[in-house]
Design brief:
There is one protein chain. The chain is α+β, with helices and mostly antiparallel strands. It contains nine helices and 13 strands. Strands 1, 4, 5, 6, 7, 8 and 13 form a seven-stranded mixed beta sheet that branches. Strands 10-11-9-12 form a four-stranded antiparallel beta sheet. A two-stranded antiparallel ribbon has the order 2-3. A hairpin with a 2-residue loop joins strand 7 (143-149) and strand 8. Helix 2 (99-115) packs across helix 3 and helix 5 (196-215) runs antiparallel to helix 6. Bound molecules: (3R)-3-hydroxy-3-methyl-5-(phosphonooxy)pentanoic acid. (3R)-3-hydroxy-3-methyl-5-(phosphonooxy)pentanoic acid is lined by residues 11, 14-16, 30, 98, 100-101, 132-134, 182-183, 273-274.
Length: 337
C-alpha cells in the first residue's frame, strides 16, 4: 500500500459557491493557511482483480464522494484499475474541520504515487479539487490562494509556512458529523439565499485586503477580515431556503469569549467553516492564555493547537494513529459504482 499524508487547511477568506459544479471551480477567490496538526493519511493499493473499489475508514455517507473521485481519476488518466483505499484522520471527520480538504489532497498524492505518475503541484491540485474544492489548497503548505479565472481556477502558494508563526487553535464543540455537507450547503445558498450575490461581491475586497494583510503579517488586519468574511458566509447560508445553521450554542459562546479576550487586550480572532468548531488565530506568545480561555467555555470538548504546515507527502509507513482507526470495528467496507 502506498501512503500519502496531507494537512487540512483553514480558509481566512472562504470558498462558498461554485462557478462550475462539475469541475468544482469556485465562484469567488479564497485564501487559506495549511494546518500542521490536522492530518489525513490515505493508503492506496491498486488491484485489477477487484470488481469494486474498497474504501475503509470513513462514515458510510462520505464514501460515494471517494468512489466518484476514483472514477474521475480513472476517466481522466485512462487507468481502469480498482483500488483498495484506507483513510484515516487524526481529528473528527465531516464535522466542519475541513477533513475533505486533507482527505482528497492525501488521496490525490497517494493515487498518483501508486500509479507512478509524476505530478506537478498544479496537476495534483487539479486532481484533488475533483474530490473537494478546498482540497486543492491543501496541496501547498503555508498560505495559499485559490481564485477563479476565465473558464477555470488557479491555486498558488502566496507565502511559505515559515513566513508567519501564527497560532491557530481549534475549539471543538461537537464531534458529531454535520447534517448538511459543504457541497449541498453552498449549492443551496447559491440557489436560494438573497444574500449570495452580496457574499460573492464582498469577497473580492476581502481577498485583496487579506493578501496584503498576510504579506504584512498584520494579525489585527487578518483577524478583522477573517471574522467579517466568516460572518458574511454564514449570514448568506442562514438566509438560504431551507436555512442552514452550522453552529451549536457553544459556537456562539466561543465567539463571545474571543471578543471578550480582545476587549481585555488579547489579540485573538475567530473563523468558522461549515460546522460548529471555532478556529482562533493569535500570536504564538499568547496561545497558552487563549487555549486556557477557550477550554474554559462550557461546551468546548477540546482545543487542538496548530500552526502553518506543509503540503502533502508520500511516507513509507503510515503514522501510528492510522492502525487504530482502520482496525476499529466501526470501520466501514464499501461498495463502488
Ligand atoms: O471543499 P468543500 O466542498 O469541503 O468546501 C469547503 C467550504 C468551507 O470550508 C466552508 C470554506 C473553505 O474555503 O474551506
Amino acid at each position: 500500500m502506498i501512503w500519502g499524508l496531507a494537512n487540512s487547511n483553514l480558509a481566512l477568506v472562504k470558498y462558498w459557491g461554485k462557478a462550475d459544479e462539475g469541475a468544482k471551480h469556485p465562484a469567488g477567490g479564497s485564501l487559506s493557511v495549511t494546518l500542521d496538526s490536522l492530518v489525513t493519511a490515505a493508503g492506496v493499493e491498486l488491484d485489477p482483480s477487484l470488481r469494486q473499489d474498497e474504501v475503509i475508514g470513513l462514515p458510510d455517507k462520505a464514501i460515494p464522494k471517494v468512489v466518484s473521485f476514483l472514477d474521475a481519476f480513472r476517466a481522466r488518466t485512462g487507468n481502469g484499475s480498482r483500488a483498495r483505499v484506507r483513510l484515516s484522520s487524526n481529528f473528527p471527520v465531516a464535522a466542519g474541520l475541513a477533513s475533505s480538504a486533507s482527505t482528497f489532497a492525501a488521496l490525490a498524492q497517494a493515487i498518483v504515487a501508486a500509479h507512478g505518475i509524476p505530478a506537478t503541484p498544479a496537476e495534483l491540485a487539479d486532481l484533488a479539487r475533483l474530490g473537494s474544492g478546498s482540497a486543492c489548497r491543501s496541496v501547498f503548505g503555508g498560505f495559499v490562494e485559490w481564485r477563479p479565472i476565465r473558464g477555470g481556477s488557479v491555486v498558488e502558494p502566496v507565502a511559505p509556512k515559515e513566513h508567519w508563526d501564527l497560532a491557530i487553535l481549534v475549539a471543538v464543540t461537537s464531534e458529531r458529523p454535520k447534517d448538511v455537507g459543504s457541497s449541498e450547503g453552498m449549492k443551496r445558498t447559491a440557489a436560494s439565499s438573497p444574500y449570495y450575490p452580496a457574499w460573492i461581491e464582498s469577497g473580492v475586497t476581502d481577498l485583496a485586503e487579506m493578501r496584503g494583510a498576510v504579506a504584512a503579517r498584520d494579525l489585527g488586519c487578518v483577524g478583522e477580515i477573517a471574522e467579517r468574511n466568516c460572518m458574511r458566509m454564514h449570514a448568506a447560508a442562514m438566509a438560504a431556503n431551507p436555512p442552514l445553521l452550522y453552529w451549536e450554542a457553544a459556537t456562539i459562546a466561543v465567539i463571545r469569549k474571543v471578543w471578550e479576550l480582545r476587549a481585555r487586550g488579547l489579540a485573538a480572532y475567530f473563523s468558522i467553516d461549515a460546522g460548529p468548531q471555532v478556529k482562533v488565530l493569535c500570536a504564538r506568545d499568547d496561545s497558552a492564555a487563549v487555549v486556557a480561555a477557550l477550554a474554559s467555555v462550557a461546551g468546548v470538548v477540546r482545543v487542538i493547537q496548530s500552526k502553518p504546515g506543509d503540503g502533502p507527502r508520500v511516507v513509507a509507513e503510515p503514522p501510528a494513529w492510522v492502525e487504530r482507526v482502520v482496525d476499529a470495528p466501526a470501520a466501514k467496507r464499501a461498495v463502488a459504482s
